[in-house]
Amino acid sequence: MGSDQSMKWRTGGALTALCLAASMLAHGAAGAADASAMPYLKHKDGRYALMVDGEPFTLLGVQAHNSSNYPEALKQVWPAVDDVHANTLEIPVAWEQIEPVEGRLDFSYVDTLVQQARAHQVRLVLLWFGTWKNTHAQYTPEWVKFDSKRFPRMLDKNGKSIYCLSPFGEETLKADRKAFVALMTHLKEIDASQHTVIMVQVENEVGTFGQPRDYGLKAQALFKQRVPQAVLAHKKSPVAGAATGTWSEVYGPYADEYFHAWAFASYIEEIAKAGRAVYDLPMYVNNALRDPSEPLAPWNNNFSAGGPTYDVIDIYRAVAPHLDLVAPDFYMKESNKVTANIDRFQRPDNPLLVPEMANSADMARYIYQILGRGSLGVAPFGVDYADYTNFPLGSQLTDRRMSEPYARVFAVFRPMQRLWATWALENRTHGVAEGEDRKPQTIMLKNWKATVSYRLWQLGDEGWLSTIKEQPPGTETPSGGVAIAQIADNEFIVVGQHARVKFDTAGANAGKPSMYGRVEEGYFDANGKWVMMRNWNGDQVDSDLNLTGNPVVLKVKLGTY
Ligand code: DGJ
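A: This is the predicted complex of the input protein with DGJ.
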């Protein structure tokens, strides 16, 4: 980033700080609308809102690195959380740390975490690293890790034990559930009146690499049984098969994977159900995605079998009603894959939430698309200042240069996050991100159409600009994104970066000439009231609405004549 850009950011930063302070007073961790209300998911006509303190809440999150879950390590977490203007921190609570000795529970880290989150006016999503973390047993206590008799591993086809704990381990389930219930009981004790913790992820990226299911004794016996009715009712077979019968009869070549998904979903349901019985927070599972651009085919060692990938969402929804949703983790960076994953995971029966996303700068543009599409929230992964980079999955950087692209985007959303979540619930929001083809995109709105173009200077039509060799700074690689909320028939909130937005008439307005009434740049204050800073006119709208690398919020009024 050039010095010029960074100066602009610093200048904008003072204003942003003002807006944020105002918004946090009304909508922060303390002093909000109805702090006694439990967080929950509200559903309206196939759209969802995460309700926090009785009001819709957009989760502008960051996820800490895997090993940042210790009081000392938190010192490297909070500065990044604050820099990014996140309103939520997603962070692990590991089974090994709360129950290092069986039956002896230690919640000192959880207590510190919750207290510090309150001091930073940030909410928490706790990630329960229990039986499985990325399919491994690595976060189980040592008394679990090394007792394969009591806590059995899965078996391969030759009866040899593999690395992954079996989802049929009865003692494993009992012990994990007991620890999880203890955690939820403790959370109720320390947080029921404040709801600093707003959601819990149960396990992390479950499934198994290397084989499609467990071949242990119990698994083999169950695999030969009939498919449970709940699964049959929800999951249609992708290939022709029997309407009822054994897994192989019904699901043919998909039987192994679907059986394994059923095993994991059933196990996790037991844990979520028991946890929610003591303290009823929203819960979800995340997953390492299978490639959405490949044609659907039976598992072929190409993703972690049994995890909640898009083709088995139905199985998880069928057998795990105590999970609110199945969430995708975005590490596939291509825009067609991001779009395909949003399309597959956002369903009337499965609210969209992106709890992890690579933290490299190129991914920041997708926040506009994700939030525009009505996601409950989004969180780049590994946003803390521990000296660790998960490149090539994420950024090579571990300092403010890593967090800054996200800070810019969150800074514009945070003051209006409650409003945005309300508009998303009402199906008023839309979003796009620049594709690798750099081509314009269209957003269809009620009686209007927005065209979003990229790599244009702020003045001049496309013909003129095509003769100019220089490209606007910061657009060397795809970096644009735009989110629009239609807040009234002819009124829009536009937020974005590195993009040009042009409105045309459509629907009932089609064919009528139109023009801007007002294009106000500003922000929403602590009471949700719009504060105008200036009105864009003249040069600033002659070539439509041109957003640079410094995101702004525009309130646009259009009219026909
Ligand atoms: C996805 C996992 O859920 C995270 O915990 C982390 O391991 C990332 N992958 C990779 O850094």
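Confidence is low (pLDDT under 50) at residues 1-14, 25-31. Residues 452 and 501 are 5 Å apart (CA to CA).
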